[in-house]
Protein: Oxidoreductase
Organism: Alcanivorax borkumensis
Amino acid sequence: MRRHGIDCCIIDRLDAPSPYSRALGLHARTLEIFDALEVLPSIRKVSRRLKAVSVYGDKGFLLELDLTTLKAPYPWVLSCPQSEVETVLIDRYRMLGGELIRSAELLDFRQDGRGVEARIRQGSDVQKLQCELLVGADGVGSIVREQLGIGFNGVDYKEHFLLADVLWEAPWSNDRSHGFLQEEGLLLALPLPQGWRLIMARREPPTLPLSLALFTERLTSILGEAPNLGEPRWLSQFSVQRRLAQHFRRNRVFLAGDAAHVQSPLGAQGMNTGLADAFNLSWKLAFYLKGFGQGALLDSYEQERRPVAEKMLYGVDMLSRASLVKLPMLRRSRDSLLKLAGSRRNISSRLLRTASQLNVHYRNSPLVTYGPEADVGWRHQGPLPGDRLPDAALKSVRTGHLHQLHGLLRKPVHHLLLQLSESPEHNERLVMYALSERLGQEYRESVHLTVIAARATADDDVPREGTTRIWRDHEGEFASAFGDKGRLWLMRPDGHLAYRAPVSNADDLLGYLRRVVGKANS
Ligand SMILES: Cc1cc2nc3c(=O)[nH]c(=O)nc-3n(C[C@H](O)[C@H](O)[C@H](O)COP(=O)(O)OP(=O)(O)OC[C@H]3O[C@@H](n4cnc5c(N)ncnc54)[C@H](O)[C@@H]3O)c2cc1C
């Protein structure tokens, strides 16, 4: 919200980020979001890069998923404690002028047509806070969700989970996660920036007080010798549930993160999904508050994010059940399927793209669309409206410097990419100059134009730059991700494609912009 210049205030009843980190794994799509927020370098400083996931069954090795094969700018998982993620994000938020009030608890709120009035308690002091919109990112026990009367249906898992963060000279490589799906039960060994996180699942509740004894016993059976585990920095137990809020919005109040969806930590999706909720929602709230677009913009948050959360919950549930299954026959079938997945490139790459959230799309959203002459048969080239925009290397026509497309599109506005065909026709040049003028006049603050020339276009055929920067496809990366025809690609501030059409549909595109990012009352 601060990137969009909106005044906002976070209230948190904790007086500091928790020193214990629940979430750990940051996936490839989240790293792109962090890149857009300009926090990725700080996050990388306090993270460990994980390149693969290895899974073992009763009879040894089952599969390895190689994260570096992902087609993405950051093809890894970063192991980064949630407390560090929070600290980095809060620093950035404050740098942008955001206000954070700690030790402040939301007691209740009321909303009407004009705004929201929240009652906040700080110590013995209770104050009223007026705001236009309220987002409940207040976790699984969300008071915001409760007060809205929104159902949170789902199930509790029977298993009990134990967690230990320890220093340990493990006999395994610490550039990957290790999962042991054996008869004795599930054990995960996840590298931390320093040390390891061990998680095990059991049917019986652990005896208290918690100790490392169960981990030592389990690791001894895996390794054939007792591990020399250091003092635990954190020992904890937790149970797991799967729940989805019936709605993510009621009028001026929204739900995001665990307040809207909660699931098993296997697959490391919870925090990543919550961050993606916030990235989807923030530009819509900002546009609404600036008077751009219409009610459809706010409606689209639930329309886009709830199906994503529902699908994610289903996937994580399947993964959790498969990891925890006890019956020998089912375990054998599971292990055969995992072996098959590991040996088939197309299956493992699909699994990886899903887990890394690069596959998340909003194709069914009413907010995204095609132009009337869009060329999208079943063998279409390039992303469809609602898809995440792929990255590609580009070369500046003016300076010859190389840049990544994502890096050029960081500013939180809509970006229109005008892709010229290899031999740009007269009409394409006219559209380029006309769009450059119209966008400059009517959408200077909200839509930026970037022109991409094909790799093979002769220098003399590349239009003159004028006020619009022109980039040339470098090594054909853009054409391989987007196809090679002249097209208009409109990217939203959250990196998803809003609109796709041939260059000849420029008038229709302007109509779309008027509806979605035009001043609501003009
Ligand atoms: C063991 C474990 C491991 C996990 N590992 C991963 C992982 O690797 N990757 C991943 O993506 N996810 C993981 N998760 C899930 C992840 O931890 C959660 O999805 C994530 O913390 C949710 O963030 P949130 O901000 O929505 O909620 P929370 O982290 O619960 O934060 C809610 C905030 O709201 C504040 N709050 C609550 N009520 C009020 C109130 N009334 N007034 C003011 N403030 C209030 C709280 O103080 C807190 O700061 C894991 C979970 C567990 C249990």
Summary: The mean pLDDT is 93. The pocket of flavin-adenine dinucleotide is lined by residues 11-14, 22-25, 82, 105-106, 137-139, 143, 163, 238, 257-259, 265, 268-272, 274 (CB under 6 Å). The two ends are 24 Å apart (CA to CA).
